Amino acid sequence: LLARFDVRNHANPYLRELAQATGFASHLVVLAQGRALYVGQERSPSTITVDIPIGGVAPPTCTAVGKALLADLEGDELRPYLESLAPHTVKTIVEPELLQADLALTRERGFAVDDEEFHIGVRCVASPIRDYAGRANAAIGVSGPAADLHAELVPRVAVAVRQVAEAISARMGHYDSASVGDRSRPQSAIV
After folding, report:
1. Buried (b) or exposed (e) across 144-177, using 16+ Cβ within 10 A?
2. Residue 74: exposure state from Cβ atoms within 10 A (0-12, 13-18, ≥19)
3. How many CA within 13 A on the CB side of residue 150?
4. What is the pLDDT of residues 148-172, one digit of tens each?
5. Is the torsion defined by CA of 25, 157, 187, 176 positive or negative?
6. Which of 28, 160, 161, 172 has the fewest CB atoms nearer than 10 Å to its CB?
7. pTM given for the model
8. Residue 186, Cβ neighbours under 10 Å: how many?
9. How far apart are the first and last CA of the chain?
């Protein structure tokens, strides 16, 4: 029964709510064969949107959704990603030590940021979705033009993303005693 849990089914209504609450496109991603695989998305209500097709893949080391998942890995699981860093933009982290520091920060604050590391002009924020055993088996995030999803707005958007990730995690059977409040539905984010 546990093997049949489908994160997409649990996340679909939240993708829509997250896009509406933040005004940015929302994405659901899993790791597959060393890549960030996009398995769900909701377009932005704005006329300018970041559109990554379902089934599309990206390097997890330079995407917020990918880094949200990589932050859960250690040692031998993380090593192949650190050994295959490649630049995609001038802002891509290509030094293993810097990526490890970024992943540590992601673990500490509960969300990852892609600051134009995969595409110049695009900024993303993501948080992990945890299963009943506490493993990050998917990530949800938002993407938008860097001019709109500016650095000062990232912390407020991150709150909305984390709330949604925690709500989906709860539906997947994860219980986090550090979280408080009702996680069955995301709270509206004022962004």
Report:
1. bbbeebeeebbeebbbbbbbbbbbbbbbbebeee
2. exposed
3. 3
4. 999 999 999 999 999 999 999 998 8
5. positive
6. 172
7. 0.86
8. 21
9. 38
